Amino acid sequence: MIGGILEVRNLTKKKDQTAILKDISFSVQKGELVSIIGRSGCGKTTLLRCINCLEVFDKGYLRVDDIEVSRVNGEKPQSNAKEENDFQTKARKIRQKVGMLFQTLDLFSHLTVLENIILAPVVVKKEPKEKAIERARELLEKVGLKGYENRYPYQLSGGQSQRVAIARSLAMNPEIMLYDEPTSALDPELVGEVLNVMRDLDREGMTQIIVTHAMSFARSASDFVIYMENGEIIEIGSPDKIFDHPSDPRTEAYVRLFRE
Amino acid sequence: MRKLLKVSLCFWLIFLAPAFSSLAKEFKVLRWAADAESNAPYIFQDPKIPSNIIGFEVDIVNAIADVLGVQTHFVQNQWDGLIPGLYRGDYDIAINGLEITEDRKKEVNFSKPYYITHEQLVVLKGVNYIYSLSDLVGRKVGALKNSLAERILRAKGGINVLTYEGEVNAFVDMKNGRIDAVLVDAPIAIYYTAVNPEFEMVGQPIGEISYGIAVRKEDTLLLQELNYAIDVIQRNGKLREILDSWNLWNFMMETYLNDFAPTNVPPKKYQYFVESVSQKSRFTERIELYLKFMPVFFEAALITLGLSFVAMLFAIFAGLIIALLRIYGGKILSWFAVAYIEIIRGTPLLIQLYLIFYALPSIGIKLSPFLAAVLGLGLNYAAYEAEVYRSGFFAIPKGQMEAAISLGMSKFQAIRYVIFPQTIRIVIPPVTNDFISLLKDSSLVSVITMVELTKVYNQIASTYYDYLGTGIITAVLYLLLGLPFIRIARYFERRLAVERKPPKIKNNIYNSLSF
After folding, report:
1. How many Å lie between the alpha carbon of A17 and the closest alpha carbon of chain B?
2. Could you tell me how many CB contacts below 8 A there are between chain A and chain B?
């Protein structure tokens, strides 16, 4: 399990002396689709946010492609301006390689769909506007929203919003896409359209990590599944193993909830 | 208001180093200050031409200037600020019914008296039981705050003394039956009763008041010249001529100048005032009069608007910087931002204006009244705007920032392109609101010599003893000034309501569970 596009080793994070991530290790190969499942509060969202450097972990090692961040125990980046700077520089590099989608609908509400998509390429990557627009139209077509360029976020359904948000992330050409419960806020009938986009991306070879409660999706689409509980990885395995033959009783107890 | 004098006196005593060099020297222009709101007959607007300042003290200043062979330059200042303003150096003498008292002599030097008068009892016509101080015992009597009249009434004992900011308020209260008598400086009594026949002066003169010209302590040469000039106009009859024309010659001046000759000229200026002010009872005459005020009001309204506008622009930008420091400035800078906001919001704007205008010159920063007003209002409102922005920032869902950051934007880029544009939309209505309240707060800057809308209202109202009509005109003008901005706020509010329609999020996120 060494190598791959993403590597997490012994990652630990504490909040107010309570460990919310304990010694997390796993790696992901290019093109894989990974589901992280577990009860609310088990730390899966925090793990995702650590990979994206939205949160700072306390100890461990993180590598995204060729960018490495490693930290020893107790060193808060805030304690030292140089270290903080160093971390932020690396964090920005990592974020440019990692796209992230949130549970809440976070399209920029003052911008149209098209403007939402081209903002980061134009501002961060200094792409020429025409080129960014052209790419944005391709992406909109890919997520099935051709013709929605000039709508405002409030004119979209939840599913459409999330698909625009995916297109917005893809516009930065990420190596990895992270999804934090991307369909939890959606009406059930809209969930499928978002998941389908993710399946399409999987087929195109995008590396994707999904924190989800959509078990049928996790089961059918994942290359492997991570089950977490109380900030720990309890079990990693193929969907069949996790859902049908879990080796740990805790995993068994959780997945049983979803069996009829 | 007179209490403020003491406050402001404290300021310059504390903050002004006594390092002011004499500005008098070889002066060519006599810069004199007064408050044109101080009523007839002292210094007030010409009832027929409101942009002209007239009064017996204006005549005296001109006579003195003639003797000294210099030009005059009038500086408007709030009455309370007349003495502190001397030490700011905007003018060299203050002459405005300033009674020569021991307290004031500690702060300034006074010329020899140019007028001596007394306190006068005024009652409603037909009241036949009040003729002297003794008749006041057990009754309610009005007087100006911190005036000699108040001190006399209190010293008498047993009198229920009510004090007022302006004499007109006292007279109106008497008319409404709240008080039985008013004790005021005789000139005020003479002029007010002349145009308000429902009142009359009764009883003997009470007490003695000497008015002098105030100059800075160090300007001894100027003081000598003033005394010389007063001497000259006393001896050559000019002073008597002025006092006669204003109907102010009295037995005290007879003794003071040793001039007992009977008056044989009609009091022209007194008659002019009485005629032009009193016969305005007919409706059309009132309207005509108000129309005549309009240019003066409009000019003042423009000053109010311009001043408020510049101050608000300043507040909008300064507030933004403060808000950014508070939110993103790290521990130390945000501490300073919080301290600034709390101190500015927690202290009166009036005091801040005084500090900027009267105290800053002592450390070498002497701002023009306009700049001081803009700075005072701007710095004050910046604190409020900073808080408005901050709440605007926090009204934006946290996810907007995180989404921007995870797209690879720097914090600055995220603020610039995502947070800031949305904040602006949110804060436009409250900022407009603040502008309208700044528009009204700007009336405070009259304390630092700015003549704006409220000041002009006070001046005109006190000249005509008409607070109702001119008050309505002033209120309407403020309303008109603010109206366009209220409409702008409405427009943005409506647009915002559409843009920020809640996204379609379900309540129960677990509805989407499936297996």
Report:
1. 23
2. 118
Best A92, A97, A110 residue to mutate vs chain B (most B CBs within 10 Å): A110
Q: pLDDT by residue (tens digit) across B26-44?
A: 568 999 999 888 788 999 8
Three-state secondary-structure class, residue A224: strand
Say what the pLDDT of residue B497 is. Answer: 66
Both B308 and B442 in one domain: the answer is yes
Contact between chains at A123 and B417 (C-beta distance less than 8 A): yes
The tens place of each residue's pLDDT in chain A, 260 residues long, gives: 457 899 999 999 988 888 889 999 999 999 999 999 999 888 999 999 999 988 888 888 999 998 988 887 655 545 567 777 788 888 888 998 999 998 888 899 889 999 999 999 999 999 999 999 999 999 999 899 999 999 999 889 888 999 999 999 999 999 999 999 888 888 888 888 889 999 999 999 999 999 998 888 999 999 999 999 999 999 999 999 999 999 999 999 998 888 76
- Same domain? For B352 and B399 the reply is yes
Answer yes or no: is pLDDT of B1 > 80: no
Judge: B407–A124 Cβ closer than 8 Å, yes or no: yes
Consecutive H or E run containing A25? strand A18-28
pTM for this prediction: 0.70
Closest CA to A257 of A239, A243, A237, A247: A243
Cα–Cα–Cα angle for A212, A216, A219, rounded to 5 degrees: 85
pLDDT score of B139: 93
- Is B425 touching A (CB cutoff 8 A)? yes
Residue of A nearest to B426 (CA): A110
Q: Please tell me if residue B400 touches chain A, with a CB cutoff of 8 Å.
A: yes
Residue range of the domain that includes B180:
117-208
On chain B, the residues whose CB falls within 8 A of the CB of A259 are 515
- Quick one: A6-256 is in which CATH superfamily? P-loop containing nucleotide triphosphate hydrolases (3.40.50.300)
Residue B42: CATH number of its domain: 3.40.190.10
Q: How far apart are CA B499 and CA B66, in angstroms?
A: 70
Which residue, B24, B481, B6, B48, is CA-closest to B296?
A: B48
Partner residue facing A214 (CB), from B405, B498, B512: B512
Interface contact flag, A216 B413, Cβ < 8 Å: no
B292 with B320, same domain: the answer is: yes
Q: For residue A181, what is the nearest residue in chain B, using CA coordinates?
A: B509
C-beta atoms of B505 and A100 within 8 A? no
Would you mind telling me the total number of residues written for chain B in this entry? 515
> Do A54 and B402 count as a contact with CB atoms less than 8 A apart?
yes
Query: Which residue, B245, B279, B313, sits at the end of a domain?
Result: B279
Q: Are residues B381 and B352 in the same domain?
A: yes
The domain boundary, picked from B149, B174, B208, lies at: B208
> Could A109 and B422 be called an inter-chain contact, meaning their C-beta atoms sit closer than 8 Å?
yes
- Which phi-psi region, left, alpha or beta, contains residue A19 (left: φ > 0; alpha: ψ -120 to 50)? beta
CB B349, CB B376: distance < 8 Å: yes
Q: Tell whether B217 and B361 lie within a shared domain.
A: no
- Are A172 and B503 an interchain contact pair (Cβ–Cβ within 8 Å)? no
The chain A residue lying nearest B512, using CA atoms, is A188
Tell me the chain A residues in contact with residue B513 when contact means C-beta distances shorter than 8 Å. Answer: 213-215, 258
Measured distance between the N- and C-terminal CA atoms of chain A, rounded to whole angstroms: 34
Cis peptide before B502 (omega within 30 of 0): no
Residue B515 within any structural domain of the chain: no
Task: Tell me the CA distances in angstroms from B149 to B145, B174, B205, B213, one per residue in order.
Answer: 9, 16, 11, 21
Domain CATH code at residue B473 = 1.10.3720.10
